[in-house]
TrEMBL record:
It comes from the Bacteria. This is Sirohydrochlorin cobaltochelatase. InterPro entries: Anaerobic_Co-chelatase, Sirohydro_Cobaltochel/CbiX. One of its GO terms (molecular function) is sirohydrochlorin cobaltochelatase activity.
Length: 211
C-alpha cells in the first residue's frame, strides 16, 4: 500500500481515492488507513472509501445482491421453489472472520438476510465465531438435507479451495458429508459478481463527491 502511494506521488498524482476491496472494517482495513495516514502529506487530497459492509444501507444492498447471486446458480432445488425458498436446501457462506470487533458485521448481515426473507442462508467463519461447528448444529436442528457451500470472500483463494471444498477430512465439505448432508460447492468469489462490484463502485463514487 505504502509503495503504491509513493509511486503515485512520483507520477505526479495529487488527488487520490483509496477504494478497499475489504468486506469488513477489520484489521486489514485498519492497516490500510494507517498506511494512508503515513503517506497523506504527499498529496493535495487523499480519501479512503468504505469496505463492503459499512453503512446500514450496505447491509440491505448486500442482502439483495446475495439474493440475486443465489438465484443465478444453476442448481436444482429439492422442491419446486427456488434455492432461497427451499425447505430442504441450506446455503452456507464461508467468511474469513476476525478477532477484530468488526467481526460482528457477519452476524448483522445474517440478521438482515432474515429480514429479507432468506431463512435458509447461514454464515460461518474460518477464523472467528460463528465457526462451522456452530452452524452445522443449526443445520441439523432445522433438518436440512442439502447444503450449498459458497465463499463470502472477494476471491476464491486457498481458504475456499482447501478449507471449504478441499479433500482433507476437516474441510467444510467433508465435515458436512460426515454429518449426512449432500453438499454442492460454488467456487466463485464475491468479486466475480457484478452486483457486489457495483456496491464498491457506489462507495467510490460517493467518495469522489468529497474531493
Amino acid at each position: 500500500m505504502t509503495f503504491a502511494l509513493k509511486r503515485m506521488y512520483k507520477d505526479g498524482i495529487e488527488e487520490v481515492i483509496v477504494q478497499p476491496s475489504h468486506i469488513i472494517n477489520g484489521v486489514e482495513n485498519d492497516n490500510m488507513l494507517s498506511a494512508v495516514r503515513e503517506s497523506g502529506s504527499l498529496f493535495k487530497k487523499i480519501i479512503c472509501s468504505a469496505p463492503l459492509l459499512t453503512s446500514e444501507n450496505d447491509y440491505s444492498d448486500v442482502a439483495d445482491a446475495i439474493h440475486d447471486i443465489i438465484n443465478s446458480w444453476e442448481i436444482e432445488a429439492a422442491d419446486e421453489n427456488s434455492i432461497i425458498n427451499s425447505k430442504e436446501n441450506a446455503v452456507l457462506l464461508m467468511g474469513h472472520g476476525s478477532n477484530h470487533h468488526a467481526n460482528s458485521a457477519y452476524a448483522a448481515l445474517e440478521y438482515r438476510l432474515r429480514d429479507h426473507g432468506m431463512e435458509n442462508i447461514f454464515i460461518a467463519n474460518v477464523e472467528a465465531y460463528p465457526y462451522i461447528d456452530n452452524v452445522i448444529e443449526k443445520l441439523e436442528q432445522k433438518k436440512y438435507k442439502k447444503v450449498i457451500l459458497a465463499p463470502f470472500m472477494i476471491v476464491a483463494g486457498e481458504h475456499v479451495k482447501n478449507d471449504m471444498a478441499g479433500d482433507d477430512d476437516d474441510s467444510w465439505k467433508n465435515l458436512l458429508v460426515k454429518k449426512g448432508f449432500e453438499v454442492h460447492c460454488i467456487l466463485k468469489g464475491l468479486g466475480e459478481y457484478k452486483s457486489i462490484r457495483e456496491i464498491f463502485i457506489k462507495h467510490a463514487r460517493e467518495s469522489v463527491q468529497d474531493l
